[in-house]
Each structure stands twice: as structure tokens, then as C-alpha cells.
Design goal:
This protein is an all-alpha fold. The chain has one domain (2-71): ACP-like (Non-ribosomal Peptide Synthetase Peptidyl Carrier Protein, Chain A). It has 4 helices and no strands. The longest helix has 15 residues, at 32-46.
């Protein structure tokens, strides 16, 4: 699952150099619009529904993975 999340991050943020250390602070294309695009992609890929509080906590790769793990 972690690898799939990283693939989605790279695609949504259009940055193939992203790795597990990426965050809003280190990825210049991780803005509010791409945050919404990320949520849509994650919900479709993993068949989950993310709550607004969870979406707000998604500020780095590890947090995204943790939230998804809790949903699956």
C-alpha cells in the first residue's frame, strides 16, 4: 500500500522525485487544490471515504499512510 500511495503522490503533485519524506513543507506543488486531487485519487484507489478532519491531518506521506491504514 505504501508504494501505491507514493505513486499517487508523485502523479498528483507531478514530481517523480518525491519519496517517503515528502510533506507540504517540502513539496512546492502540495497546495490546497492538489490536496483535494490527492483525496479524490486516494478515495478511488483504496475505496475509502475520508472525513474532513482526516484530510486536514494529511500533511505528509507518513500521515497519509497512517490514515489509510486505519480505514482499511
Amino acid at each position: 500500500m505504501e508504494e501505491k500511495v507514493l505513486e499517487i503522490l508523485k502523479r498528483v503533485f507531478n514530481d517523480l522525485s518525491l519519496d517517503a519524506s515528502c510533506s507540504q513543507a517540502t513539496c512546492k506543488t502540495w497546495d490546497s487544490m492538489n490536496q483535494l486531487n490527492l483525496v479524490v485519487e486516494l478515495e478511488m484507489e483504496f475505496g475509502v471515504s475520508l472525513e474532513p478532519e482526516e484530510i486536514a491531518r494529511m500533511t505528509n506521506y507518513m500521515e497519509v499512510v497512517q490514515i489509510l491504514k486505519s480505514k482499511l
